[in-house]
Structure formats: structure tokens, C-alpha cells
């Protein structure tokens, strides 16, 4: 099969022929219809963030496709089934899994990080983690649900606990940020979106944002947010992964508000502990999504609460994986998908 293989940071992925994986007992072989291109992949390629499995490894963790073959012992799926593969696979038996927090499983395996991922024609994964895709959700664009929709769902519903009437600020209007805007709006939040690109802010308004601020041209925009929301937002989501936006998000909160960190960052969070204590501010991390919530996120797409086709702005064949990555680097794309 064809696959785009990662060998080392600061090197292009190599498109080569590799053996097609054979599904082991309890696994299925999925023919990849689409694989989302994520900034996490750029962390590995451009910034030297190490993968858990040393290279060579096939990257790509947002995968949808059809079951091509089932391994021994698999009875829940048959060849031809339309499926979505969760970005992170859980063990199901550790303390965190057994307490309903499979998204932070102690033994988690991430596609394109711990094991070979979806920048390939086929991928083999445990059948227990597979999620069925409805016939009216497209597989190519639907691949991004595996991370770019389910991660925001978990952040909004489980970690941010957004309820109708809440003021919500979303910092960063990339693929994850715009899904945060849509989902927070769908559950009744009044959403304020912040970015440095007017085009993305216009998209945020189409996706349900009540107001937008360009952080590059608006002085003291955190103060503007507090004024607009009557003293501060109830929940702020940071989807950029930079210390400066984390601090701005914290400053936008009302007393008793919640800051949810969604964007990955190796930087130290600028935090005034006394202010957090005195104002009872909650600072929460948010990672991935619980398996039980994948069908709920898919249903939000199916019902039109998340405008999937508008999120995927660029599609490339696997042979043009370099162009796909460059498009993501350029910053104008919302989500990019490759089609092996």
C-alpha cells in the first residue's frame, strides 16, 4: 500500500510502498477514505515534538473509511461498514477507563503517534474502538470528526460545562476553535470569538459567534470582552497554545469563571495564583473525547449543528501530502484532508 512515512523532524514525509497491515485477533483493517491534517502533525515535523513510537512512523490521526477485512473474533463489524476511528484508542481496563475517563487512559494509543496512522491506504485498529458513521455523513470530510469535532465537543460539554445563556469566549479560530464556536453556540452559549485574521472571524460569525475581536488590531480586547459580557465570560476556551492568549483568556473571565485549555503548548502558563484563589477561577485542561461521546458529536454533525463541509476547506490526494501540510502551515485553511 502507499503511505506517507515520517522519518525525522524537518524532513518531508516520504511517499513509499509499505506492506499492508494484517488485522490481528480483535482488529479490523480499514480502507482510508479521508485523513485530516492536523497541527499536531506539524509539531512532529516542524518543531521536533517526539512521537511515542520512534520513526519511521506513518502519521495521521483523523481517519474515516470502510472496513476492508475483519480479524479473528470480531463480530460487531463486517466488510463494507462505514466507520470513524477515534484519534486515541483506550485500553478499557485501567483506573481512568473504569471511572469513565477513557480520553486520558493510562495506556492510550494514538494513531500516528504510538502506532501507524492514516496517511496511508489502510490502517489496522482494534474493533472495540470503531464508531459507525451514518450514511448521510460523508466519509472524506467526516474524518475530521475524529479530533477536530470530538475534542471541542468534550471541551465544551464535559470540561467547560457550557449551559444556555452562558457567555463564552473562544481564543483562536482554526479548525478546533471554529468547532468550539459552533458547539458552544449549539448548546446555547453566547459566543465571542478572538483571532488575528478577519477572514476567520467572519467565518466564526457565520458559525454562530455573537461578536468577534481581532486581537491584532483591538487594544485591550480582554477588557472589551468583559465590557460586552457584563463583567466577563463564564467560560473561556484557549485553542492556540500560546502563553499570551492563555493570559488574555484568563483575563476575560468573570469571577467564578472557567478557563479551558484546549491548544497544546510547551510554554508555562502565566498564572496569578492569588487571583485564581480569590476569584474562584477554574483552570481546566481538556484532551480528546470519551468514546461514549463520539456518537453524540457525530449526531451534531448529522443534524447540521456543526457545518462539516464548511470546515474542510482543502482536499488533497495522498500523493500531495507535502502540499496539504504547506496549506495548513499557511494559516488560511480551516481544515485540510488527504484522500489516500
Notes on the structure:
The structure is a single chain. Helix 4 packs across helix 5. The protein contains twelve helices and 18 strands. It is an alpha/beta fold and 340 residues long. It has helices at 39-47, 95-98, 139-142, 150-159, 175-186, 198-206, 221-228, 243-251, 273-278, 294-302, 308-311, 321-330, and strands at 2-6, 14-17, 27-37, 57-58, 62-70, 82-85, 88-89, 109-110, 122-126, 131-132, 167-171, 190-195, 211-214, 233-238, 253-261, 282-285, 312-317, 335-339. The protein folds into two domains: 2-147 and 289-339, Alpha-Beta Complex (Quinone Oxidoreductase, Chain A, domain 1); 150-285, 3-Layer(aba) Sandwich (Rossmann fold), CATH 3.40.50. Strands 3, 5, 6, 9, 10, 17 and 18 form a seven-stranded mixed β-sheet that branches. A six-stranded parallel β-sheet has the order 13-12-11-14-15-16, sandwiched between helices. It has a three-stranded antiparallel β-sheet with strand order 2-1-4, with no helix packed on it. It is globular. Strand 14, helix 8 (243-251) and strand 15 form a beta-alpha-beta unit. The mean pLDDT is 96. 28% of the residues lie in helices and 27% in strands.
Amino acid at each position: 500500500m502507499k503511505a506517507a512515512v515520517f522519518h525525522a523532524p524537518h524532513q518531508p514525509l516520504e511517499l513509499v510502498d509499505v506492506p499492508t497491515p494484517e488485522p490481528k485477533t480483535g482488529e479490523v483493517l480499514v480502507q482510508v477514505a479521508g485523513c485530516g491534517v492536523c497541527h499536531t502533525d506539524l509539531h512532529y515535523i516542524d518543531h521536533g515534538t517526539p512521537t511515542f513510537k520512534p520513526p519511521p512512523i506513518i502519521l495521521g490521526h483523523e481517519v474515516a473509511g470502510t472496513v476492508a477485512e475483519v480479524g479473528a473474533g470480531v463480530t460487531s463489524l463486517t466488510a463494507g461498514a462505514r466507520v470513524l476511528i477515534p484519534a486515541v484508542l483506550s485500553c478499557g481496563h485501567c483506573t481512568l477507563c473504569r471511572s469513565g475517563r477513557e480520553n486520558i487512559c493510562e495506556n492510550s494509543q494514538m494513531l500516528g503517534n504510538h502506532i501507524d496512522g492514516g496517511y496511508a491506504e489502510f490502517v489496522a485498529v482494534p474493533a472495540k474502538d470503531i464508531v459507525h458513521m451514518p450514511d448521510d455523513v460523508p466519509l472524506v470530510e467526516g474524518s475530521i470528526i475524529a479530533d477536530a469535532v470530538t475534542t471541542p465537543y468534550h471541551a465544551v460539554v464535559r470540561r467547560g460545562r457550557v449551559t444556555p445563556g452562558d457567555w463564552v469566549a473562544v481564543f483562536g479560530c482554526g479548525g478546533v476553535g471554529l468547532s468550539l464556536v459552533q458547539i458552544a453556540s449549539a448548546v446555547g452559549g453566547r459566543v465571542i470569538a478572538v483571532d488575528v485574521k478577519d477572514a476567520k472571524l467572519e467565518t466564526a460569525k457565520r458559525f454562530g459567534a455573537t461578536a468577534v475581536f481581532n486581537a491584532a488590531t483591538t487594544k485591550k480586547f480582554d477588557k472589551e470582552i468583559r465590557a460586552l459580557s457584563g463583567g466577563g465570560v463564564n467560560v473561556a476556551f484557549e485553542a492556540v497554545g500560546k502563553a499570551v492568549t492563555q493570559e488574555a483568556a484568563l483575563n476575560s473571565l468573570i469571577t467564578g469563571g472557567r478557563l479551558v485549555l484546549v491548544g497544546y503548548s510547551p510554554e508555562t502558563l502565566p498564572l496569578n495564583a492569588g487571583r485564581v484563589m480569590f476569584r474562584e477561577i477554574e483552570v481546566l485542561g481538556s484532551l480528546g473525547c470519551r468514546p461514549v461521546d463520539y456518537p453524540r458529536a457525530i449526531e451534531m454533525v448529522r443534524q447540521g449543528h456543526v457545518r462539516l463541509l464548511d470546515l474542510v476547506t482543502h482536499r488533497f490526494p495522498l500523493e500531495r501530502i507535502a502540499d496539504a501540510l504547506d496549506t495548513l502551515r499557511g494559516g488560511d485553511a480551516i481544515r485540510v484532508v488527504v484522500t489516500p
